[in-house]
Amino acid sequence: MIRVENVSKSFTLHNQGSATIEVMRGASLAVAPGECVALTGNSGAGKSTLMRMIYGNYLAASGRILVGAVDVARAEPREILALRRATLGYVSQFLRVVPRVPTIEVVAEPLLAVGTPREAALARAGGLLARLNIPETLWGLSPTTFSGGEQQRVNIARGFAHDYPAMLLDEPTASLDAGNRETVLALIEEAKARGAAIVGIFHDEAARARVADREIDVSAFTPKAAA
Ligand SMILES: Nc1ncnc2c1ncn2[C@@H]1O[C@H](COP(=O)(O)OP(=O)(O)OP(=O)(O)O)[C@@H](O)[C@H]1O
Question: ipTM, 2 decimals?
Answer without folding.
Answer: 0.92
